[in-house]
User: Fold this.
Amino acid sequence: MQDESAFVALTERVLAAIGAALDGVDNDDLDWSENDGVLTIECGAERIIVNRHVPNREIWVAARSGGFHFRVRDGAAWTDTRSGEELAALLRRLLREHCAAEIDIPTLAA
Assistant:
């Protein structure tokens, strides 16, 4: 398991990549902000929270449809600890389902 500072730096890059993908969307109802490792995506009454969980070295996602925990698997992509779904794929799906937004979020490498 990597040390805390390396994990924080890695998750900062992941959150920045998600933010960059959201910036490229032309949707007046979609807004996002990031503060101290917590990225909040708002679309109308819907909210999706993406945050790092330092003690477990995970990225957590919370949405109306549930909570998800992601870990780096085999030094590759962030994958859900239960379903195996990749983080970017989950975010694309949640944004489509909850916000009716098609957003191209690239695979978020570790």
